[in-house]
Structure formats: C-alpha cells, structure tokens
Amino acid sequence: MSITLYALDGCPWCEKVHDALDEHGIDYETEWVGALHSERDEVKRVSGQRAVPVLVDDEHGVTMNESANILEYVEQTLADEAA
Fold first, then answer.
1. Which domains does the chain have, with CATH numbers?
2. Dist CA 59 CA 51 (whole Å)
3. What is the mean pLDDT of residues 62-72?
C-alpha cells in the first residue's frame, strides 16, 4: 500500500486519522506540514487546497481531505484490505 497522510502536529483532526490508520494496522507515511498555510505548497500541489489532513492513496488513485471523509474511506476501503 502506498498511502501518505499530510498532517499538522497537534491538529486534532489529523490525530483522529492517524489513530484510525494505526488501529487498522494500515501502513502509511506522514508528511508533516508547516503551521502557516503559506508553507503548505506540497499539500496544495497534491490536493488543490492547503488544509489538512489530506490522505493520498496512490494504489487506488484517491486524494481526499476532510477528516470525516478520510475516516469513512479508512473504515470502508482500507481496513478491509488490511485485514
């Protein structure tokens, strides 16, 4: 699996996504971003916006933001594959 999570240290929504990925034993890499939106060029490049969290799943060709959407994707798609 080739999953990257763009996250900000201390962001509660990012932590929820981290927890869900860890809970299901899903392998992923974290790209830590700067606190200032102006420092998030990589996030903008991959997702079209600068907010985090952003999950990129290269295997499925999925890039998504909004923690609720990401958590649903983790539960419905990634957790089943990791099991």
1. 3-82 (3.40.30.10)
2. 23
3. 97
